[in-house]
Amino acid sequence: MTDSLVVQATALRALHRPGDPLVLPNAWDAGSARTVVEAGFGAVATASAAIAQSLGYADGEGTPAEEMFAAVSRIARAVTVPVTADLERGYGLPPVELVQRLLDAGAVGLNLEDSAPSDAALVDSQVQAELLAEVRAAADAAGVPIVINARVDVFLRAYGDPAGRLDEAIRRARAYLAAGADCVYPIVLADPVQLRSFVEAVPGPVNVLARPAAPTLPELAALGVARISYGPGLYAATRAHAAHLLASVAAGGPLA
């Protein structure tokens, strides 16, 4: 099993190409994961918010860890492409256990965010770098080069003076890459000028959240982005469409 995980982790890492980004419409269950693969995407990412809501929990580590990993496992079993899991801030698990649970679930990548689920406050960057370094060491010990995507929540949490957020995000991103992260994710950063500055200042692949305020996929590629995520967007759109269909049925109309 370790050999196959190594192959998948290596494949996932190779898909992070600046200018030719990995596009990830995030899944929340086995069925949505299969649909992502059937549409031609080369990897599957989970969205913690989508999984949480589909299981009846709130985002922000409201889902018990065992249920989150069970959901990731169902997704990984349903597809043959690499799977990367959104694991929020790790559910308080020791890094060795976090990595082992990830691998036991069949996933070869993970997101870790640098704000606390309890109060949304940013974690000290050194504390976060130490966590990332421990996760990398645990992955090395397990013999699987998992892909660590380090989320940078400076813009999401509207941290500090707006004029200093870009510099703070760059500082954190550099520290996280130095600690062993493979990719950095300045979530909700959408301004193309700031994105270009961030990409040019950070010595590693950059992940951007696709949303209406963000540049288009071709524009993000031209900015040098290496990974584009949709977060819970696909789940939200699916629920909205289901609500439309149900309203039609409730009004005596067709399921259309």
TrEMBL record:
Pfam families the record matches: PEP_mutase
Domain of life: Bacteria
Alphabetized UniProt keyword annotations: Lyase, Pyruvate
Entry keyword annotation includes Signal: no
Molecular-function GO terms, alphabetical: lyase activity
Keyword hit for Lyase: yes
Protein name (record): Isocitrate lyase/phosphoenolpyruvate mutase family protein
Organism this protein belongs to: Micromonospora zingiberis
Lineage of producing organism: Bacteria, Bacillati, Actinomycetota, Actinomycetes, Micromonosporales
